[in-house]
């Protein structure tokens, strides 16, 4: 009966789960997190409404919903009115905060990224093409190549995830970069990862490698070389190849091809490939991020070509088939793990 009672509560998050996402999107679009962040003291509803140009009673309903779920909290202003302040959760919705996911949330909420979800069941029944293609007539990478504004949203969203994961890599296993003289970040997006790694490990010469339309708008840097190309054709040579959130976009055969190209790019005697990706099905007791990995697997189904998140056994298959002689997997306090693979 306890399970029955729990089901009677949990089921509502399946029917209405999108509402939290939609209201958080609304809050970011209105600029609520940034307005509260730039105000030293608690900000009253009337001040917030006038700063943001909002209708106060509607804004009040948005705020009281968010406060219910610890996105913002209430604190009296110096005049004794109800004021709003940040919480750890709401700070992550600020555009500029260190661990912001604002860009990721806005990207996932675009009509372009939501449309493929309506094509998921047809794909599972093999009635339609992969969901993104069924919705848009081309895959995500071709879509982004032709739509600069969507490409920017995509790259900014990936940079959000990268900041969190790379921080965990730097703190969790800095020794991985000992003696790495040069590193090519394959599918490195706007270069956020390369910049973070080279800043922390200044002996590394960084190459940010991605599709030409992506690197052509990546920030210029004195320490990072941006190189455009196609990883299925060839990858710039370096002591180590780094792949983060790239292999999960592709099926096993495509992954094996990418890994083989990485292997060709590194020295056979002392090079390595560093993979930062989720490993599913390996939950530790205190690992509260596990649901994100399973969620990402569904996101790959909807958005990536034939991509998927992989179990240890599935990682073993692609790494062995690509010809790596050994590898090790290291857990870090983040969604992905770090896999070092040696030729
Ligand atoms: C999910 S994003 C990950 C970006 C970055 N590694 C990160 O973690 O923030 C995948 C990246 O792969 C790039 N990509 C897709 N196809 C590619 C190809 N054929 N050659 C090189 N890069 C490619 C995309 O442009 C995109 O930047």
Automatic annotation (TrEMBL):
UniProt keyword terms in alphabetical order: Methyltransferase, S-adenosyl-L-methionine, Transferase
Organism domain of life: Eukaryota
Family named by the database record: Belongs to the class I-like SAM-binding methyltransferase superfamily. Cation-independent O-methyltransferase family.
GO BP of this protein: methylation
Name of the protein in question: O-methyltransferase
Annotated GO MF terms: O-methyltransferase activity; protein dimerization activity
Pfam families per record: Dimerisation (PF08100), Methyltransf_2 (PF00891)
Active-site residue numbers: 248
UniProt domain O-methyltransferase dimerisation: residue ranges: 12-95
UniProt source species: Rubroshorea leprosula
SUPFAM superfamilies xref list: S-adenosyl-L-methionine-dependent methyltransferases, Winged helix' DNA-binding domain
Keyword Transferase: yes
Ranges that cross the membrane: none
All copies of domain O-methyltransferase C-terminal, residue ranges: 117-325
């Amino acid at each position: 009966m306890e399970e029955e009672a729990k089901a009677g509560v949990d089921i509502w998050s399946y029917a209405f789960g999108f509402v939290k996402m939609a209201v958080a999107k609304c809050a970011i679009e209105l600029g609520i997190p940034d307005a509260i962040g730039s105000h030293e003291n608690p900000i009253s509803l009337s001040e917030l409404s006038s700063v943001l140009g909002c209708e106060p009673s509607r804004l009040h309903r948005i705020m009281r919903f968010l406060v219910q779920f610890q996105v913002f909290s209430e604190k009296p202003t110096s005049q004794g009115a109800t004021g709003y302040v940040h919480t750890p959760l709401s700070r992550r919705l600020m555009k500029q905060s260190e661990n912001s996911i604002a860009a990721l949330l806005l990207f996932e909420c675009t009509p372009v990224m939501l449309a493929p979800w309506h094509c998921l069941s047809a794909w599972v029944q093999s009635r339609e093409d992969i969901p993104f293609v069924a919705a848009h007539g081309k895959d995500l990478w071709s879509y982004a190549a032709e739509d600069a504004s969507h490409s920017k949203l995509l790259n900014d969203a990936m940079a959000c995830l990268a900041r969190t994961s790379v921080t965990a890599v730097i703190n969790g296993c800095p020794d991985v970069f000992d003696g790495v003289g040069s590193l090519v970040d394959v599918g490195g997006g706007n270069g956020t990862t390369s910049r973070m790694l080279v800043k922390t490990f200044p002996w590394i010469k960084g190459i940010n490698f991605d599709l030409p339309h992506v690197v052509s708008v990546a920030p210029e840097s004195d320490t990072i070389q941006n190189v455009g190309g196609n990883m299925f054709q060839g990858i710039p040579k370096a002591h180590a190849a780094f792949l983060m959130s790239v292999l999960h976009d592709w099926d096993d055969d495509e992954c094996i091809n990418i890994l083989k190209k990485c292997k060709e790019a590194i020295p056979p005697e002392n090079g390595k490939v560093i993979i930062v990706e989720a490993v599913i099905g390996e939950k530790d007791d205190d690992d509260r991020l596990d649901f994100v990995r399973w969620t990402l697997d569904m996101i790959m189904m909807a958005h990536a070509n034939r991509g998927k998140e992989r179990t240890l056994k599935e990682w073993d298959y692609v790494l062995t088939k690509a010809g790596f002689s050994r590898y090790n997997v290291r857990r870090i306090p983040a969604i992905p793990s770090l896999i070092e693979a040696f030729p």
